[in-house]
Amino acid sequence: MVENRPVLRFLRHAVLIAGVACVAFPLWVTFVASTLTLEQILSVPMPLVPGDQFWNNYSQVLFAGSTRGAQAPVGQMMANSLVMALSIAIGKIAISLISAFAIVYFRFPFRMFFFWMIFITLMLPVEVRIIPTFKVVADLGILNSYTGLTLPLIASATATFLFRQFFMTIPDELAEAARIDGAGPMRFFRDVVLPLSRTSMAALFVIQFIYGWNQYLWPLLITTDESMYTVVIGIKRMIVGGDALTEWNLVMATAMLALLPPALVVVLMQKWFVKGLVETEK
Amino acid sequence: MEKRVVFRSSWLPYALVAPQIAITVIFFFWPAFQAIYYSFLLQDAFGNSTQFVWFQNFKDLFRDEAYRSSFEVTAVFSVLVTFVGLAVALALAVAADKVVKGALAYKTLLIWPYAVASAVAGVLFAFLFAPSVGIVSFALRAMGVDWNWVLRGDQAMLLVVVATVWKQISYNFLFFLAGLQSIPKSLIEAAAIDGASPVRRFWTIVFPLLSPTTFFLLVVNIVHAFFDTFGVIDATTQGGPAGATQILVYKVYYDGVKAADLGSSSAQSVVLMAIVIALTVVQFRYIERKVQY
Question: Which residues are CB-neighbours of A206 under 8 A, at least 6 positions away?
């Protein structure tokens, strides 16, 4: 603290509290709306204190689904989102780990060529190759399947870079010692590299879990079967156009369910989250 | 940078890179190649016959009024998202930088929106601002604002900007905070001893030293506004009213999936690819400089 100015300190807290309030207001309204009846919401303005429909609304969306628009139970959608988020996070970490290992610890023809191929995927987000990617997935017959939802999103330049950077910092002496002791590359990978990479893996997992859970465009394209909807898609499909026609209480309960798992991951694993965010951008 | 100690095997490294390369080729390179190929084709309305038309799709595209206005919409949208988002986040980060009591609580309460999917953020704001039932619309009407984003283009744009900024603040905040905390305290103390006021110190010392972070966030936010905001748009305005919020990415999707205009959609994909490549190059050249910094 350079100097003590009570006015400035007051101002700082005021700015922060205003910021926190603006950030939290949509969440509060969403939560309140998810505990009201539809009639209460439609009688403008809706109350800003929670109602008594919490269990009714949440149990209805979780086990039965809404009655207009998408009608699949949200419990099923959340299971789909969970499978998708976990497969993408674990898959990305696994294939990036081994490809970075190969690129750092071996010399082989086309090594840099492969490295650049992985790098270029950064420049080809799904958004710019929507139709052809959809066609490839359709030709492979994996529309409406977990494979189709996850496999095309598993390649990751950022994760490969992150592990490559990290492997570069592992002292050469470790590899030397392993070789002198007669350990092969895979033994070295399992007993030295993997344990050392644990923190990077945890940080990456948090970021990629959120990435996988929040995917929107891709599942929107390839899931037509309601039982394969992820929860983010499900919410969108529950809004049927026209303010008064949408069952906002159920949509808002679903929104709470959709944002709670990733938000909990961020809040509870904050240290890993910040580390992952900063490192994947290096 | 290369490792001095390496292992030897004729097949193992290939086996290790194989999964990543296979996915890259099948789901990235092949479709990208096809997008380029389709962009030179013209398909008739029934999809029965196609002919090779060279750059006709691109010519039609740039002559198309709707596409040019989509460019404008994207530019306005990304500039607004970037500047509003950075300004708000910087104010919050500066306030949080020197706070001792409750620093962790503030931080936690400000970063969680990162976890909210774009589409979900869109739904939350669509509800808050819903013309007839939304609570914010109610407040706006009470203040005499004629609020209806379903009909008015400028208000629709405002809505998607607010939703995007809300979601993006946490990211910008974290990077600004890290940037502020890496500025040496001695510089600020020296300026304070020389009698510089806190405002003066901010503009002459803190802000210039923060410029690498600001520039990095500028690029990241533009990329985000261009490519990761599909969910916000689709969950709220769906490009409307009358194309007022139809950003380029949404138009590719709409023309390709809803209107099934393969040639035009592919040509748009190719244009977008060029934009991503340009932005990525800018980002990486800059980051290389930062490493030496």
Answer: A265, A266, A269, A272, A273, A276
Q: Distance from B167 to chain A by nearest Cα, in Å?
A: 9
Between A61 and A168, where is the model more confident? Answer: A168
Residue B230 exposed, middle or buried by CB count within 10 Å (0-12, 13-18, 19+) = buried
* Side-chain-facing half-sphere of A247: CA atoms under 13 Å: 20
Sign of CA dihedral B35, B41, B42, B48: negative
Q: How far apart are CA A31 and CA A253, in angstroms?
A: 7
pLDDT number for residue B8 = 83
Residues 195-254 of A with CB under 8 A from B: 210, 213-217, 220-221, 232-233, 235-236, 239, 243-244, 248, 251-252
Predicted pLDDT at A83 = 93
* N residues, chain A: 282
* Residues of chain B under the 70 pLDDT cut: 1, 43-51, 53, 286-293
Average pLDDT in chain B: 84
Predicted model pTM: 0.88
Structure token digits, residue B285: 């050249």
Report the alpha-carbon distance of residue B253 to residue B259 in Å, rounded. Answer: 9
Instruction: Compute the count of residue pairs across chains A and B with CB atoms less than 8 Å apart.
Output: 301
Residues contacting A108, CB < 8 A, separation 6+: A102, B10, B13, B14
Give the C-alpha separation, A44 to B141, whole Å: 12
Which of B4, B35, B171 is opposite residue A172, by nearest beta carbon? Answer: B4
Are A66 and A85 in contact by the 8 Å Cβ rule? The answer is no
